[in-house]
Design brief:
CATH topology of the largest domain: D-Maltodextrin-Binding Protein, domain 2
Number of strands: 12
Number of helices: 12
Shape: elongated
Distance between the termini: 71 Å
CATH architecture of the largest domain: 3-Layer(aba) Sandwich
Largest sheet: 5 strands, mixed
Structural class: alpha/beta
Radius of gyration: 24 Å
Strand order of the largest sheet: 2-1-3-12-4
């Protein structure tokens, strides 16, 4: 009987030991975006690279679909997620307390880990309109979606150039981005602003099926307009991405940021940062939008909130920060 008791006791201890070894902590969460969007792909890609190395004492990574930047910021603030991918402009507004996100207030503890690809303002004009540069634009019929970042950035362009809505041949607001693109394709308007990353299905449609092209949005006045805005930066659309685009297009815009809270564990932030940067060339191959990622820009460009100390320390170690 004693032998049986000892045997049962040892068996129980072994089972408990095995169970303890196989038990894992819940994964840490990265807020992303809709399952068909690039933010979701970016989150999944970060988790993929993180999962390729062992991280003793750290949880696994999960990047489920979410409601996008605003939802991610709220989830980050209430602790529902550990990190989040957000539009750099939303990060700035959240840190300043001007986002208008109900109940969020001022996120003084918001910290950045890295920025990624540009999501710039694109100015699509019909090839048959005779508009070849920004200075030609006042002769155009303009349409845009009023409640959008496209409209917000184009308003910056108008302000920098001294234009008003009356400066154009016509100017109107439409219900959404699709409606503006449809109007361009039907030749009802000559030009539309569209804020999006590249490659973009909407830009591809406009250039391949609707007789449109992109023109650069640049100049001293615009440079001055964005110079003091930490959430925005100059950007380029490389030549050859779209039909008929033989030269690089210069423009500006925000970037998606990977952000966290100031109290995020240093070891976790370090591990995520290493996962992205230690084989950045491989990371860039995971999705077309990542192809132009440049390490120096990822730690200095369109980052309107402080870097997390663990990320900053890593960047100093690898020579990206002084």
């Amino acid at each position: 009987m004693l032998r049986l008791a000892i045997a049962l006791g040892l068996t129980g201890m072994l089972l408990m030991s095995c169970t303890q070894k196989t038990q894992t902590s819940p994964p840490f969460l990265i807020g992303t975006g809709g399952s068909t969007g690039v933010y979701y792909v970016l989150g999944q890609s970060i988790c993929k690279k993180y999962g390729e190395a062992d991280h003793p004492g750290l949880s696994s990574c999960s990047a489920p679909a979410s409601g996008g930047s605003k939802a991610n910021l709220k989830a980050l603030a209430d602790g529902s997620v550990d990190m989040a991918i957000v539009y750099s402009v939303w990060a700035q507004e959240a840190a300043d307390g001007t986002s208008g996100i109900l109940g969020l207030g001022r996120m003084e503890n918001l910290r950045a880990i890295a920025s990624f690809y540009p999501e710039p303002l694109n100015l699509l004009v019909r090839r048959d309109s005779g508009i070849d540069s920004l200075t030609d634009l006042p002769r155009a019929r303009i349409a845009m979606h009023e409640s959008s970042w496209s409209a917000a950035y184009f308003t910056m362009v108008m302000r920098s150039e001294g234009w008003t809505e009356d400066s154009f041949a016509s100017f109107r607001y439409l219900a959404n981005a699709k409606a503006t693109l449809d109007a361009l394709c039907r030749s009802e308007v000559d030009a539309i602003p569209l804020a999006t990353g590249h490659p973009s299905g909407n830009v591809k449609r406009a250039t391949e099926s609707c007789g449109a092209k992109q023109i650069s949005i640049t100049g001293p006045a615009i440079d001055e307009e964005i110079a003091g805005d930490l959430a925005l930066a100059s950007a380029e659309v490389p030549a050859g991405i779209y039909s008929g685009q033989k030269k690089t297009i210069a423009t500006f815009g925000p970037r998606p940021l990977l952000v966290t809270r100031a109290d995020a564990p240093d070891a976790l932030v370090r591990a995520i940062t290493e996962a992205i940067f230690e084989d950045l060339d491989d990371f860039k191959r995971l999705f077309p939008s990542f192809a132009t990622l440049a390490p120096q820009e990822m730690v200095t460009t369109a980052i309107p909130v402080p870097l997390h100390p663990a990320a900053a320390a890593y960047y100093r170690e690898i020579g990206l920060l002084n």
